[in-house]
């Protein structure tokens, strides 16, 4: 078994206090720093009083899962000698918030649309999304189901 360590630094500084003394409010905006990469500006989702112009943790989780599935899928296609011409996805995550303020993502829907070179491999290409999900590092790390609604056509 190989083991890899990933590191992230988070930097948050208190901004001017809210002028509304009836509620306690902290800015949700902060920076994520990963050595050797551009700074990532992050906030909470707009629904949670974050800056809607910045990425939020839910965006990043869904983006990571969508990207990881694609890379796992392309690996599977390589193993089966499928020539992938294009891959697009418009994925969705459903977040449920409980009355006590806790919450979680309860499922993710991926909608990959793949174009391949050989029309005789369309059925195999669609079926490889299941194997890609089994291999996907991030899907294997989630405690919620990831559903795939794949489409495949040949050029």
From TrEMBL:
<dbReference type="Pfam" id="PF02566">
    <property type="entry name" value="OsmC"/>
</dbReference>
<dbReference type="InterPro" id="IPR003718">
    <property type="entry name" value="OsmC/Ohr_fam"/>
</dbReference>
<protein>
    <submittedName>
        <fullName>OsmC family protein</fullName>
    </submittedName>
</protein>
<dbReference type="InterPro" id="IPR036102">
    <property type="entry name" value="OsmC/Ohrsf"/>
</dbReference>
<dbReference type="InterPro" id="IPR052707">
    <property type="entry name" value="OsmC_Ohr_Peroxiredoxin"/>
</dbReference>
<dbReference type="InterPro" id="IPR015946">
    <property type="entry name" value="KH_dom-like_a/b"/>
</dbReference>
């Amino acid at each position: 078994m190989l083991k890899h360590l990933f590191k992230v630094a988070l930097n948050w500084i208190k901004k001017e206090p809210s002028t509304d003394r009836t509620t306690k409010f902290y800015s949700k905006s902060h920076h994520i720093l990963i050595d050797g990469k551009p700074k990532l500006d992050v906030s909470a989702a707009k629904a949670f009083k974050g800056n809607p112009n910045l990425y939020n943790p839910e965006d990043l989780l869904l983006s990571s899962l969508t990207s990881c599935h694609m890379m796992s899928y392309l690996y599977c296609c390589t193993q089966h000698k499928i020539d992938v011409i294009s891959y697009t996805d418009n994925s969705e995550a459903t977040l449920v918030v409980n009355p006590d303020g806790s919450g979680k993502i309860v499922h993710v829907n991926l909608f990959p649309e793949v174009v391949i070179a050989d029309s005789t491999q369309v059925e195999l290409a669609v079926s490889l999304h299941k194997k890609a999900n089994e291999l996907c590092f991030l899907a294997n790390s989630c405690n919620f189901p990831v559903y795939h609604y794949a489409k495949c056509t040949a050029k």
